[in-house]
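Hello support,

Our group uses your service weekly, and this is the first time we've seen a run hang past the timeout. The protein is MMS19 nucleotide excision repair protein. I'm not sure whether the cause is the sequence or the server load. Input pasted verbatim:
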Amino acid sequence: ARPHLLAGENVELTKAAVELCWLTCVSSALNGEELIRSNGIEILGALLVDCMAALPVDVSPAHPGAQVATLCLRTFAGLATFEAGRQKLISRPDLVSEVVRACAFE
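Update from on-call engineer: The timeout came from a worker crash unrelated to the input. Re-ran successfully.
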């Protein structure tokens, strides 16, 4: 696990890194495809799992961990526009379950 990525000052850097992934992928198909090829879905999936494990169901959307989780979900949505991204996502039922669970947060 990578709880250190969500602790203290690291959470802001993690948030910025995931936001950069999201914006880079949605602005350039080549970048999105490269993130898929370089196991970005697996890495972001592990980060989402860590976020979900650390956050209560009633977490504030302003909480940095919730923002990281939201950015992971946005990145997955962007990557799902690519056939390879969709295939990679559906090949991971554990990740799909985590995405569904994250969508239940208010």
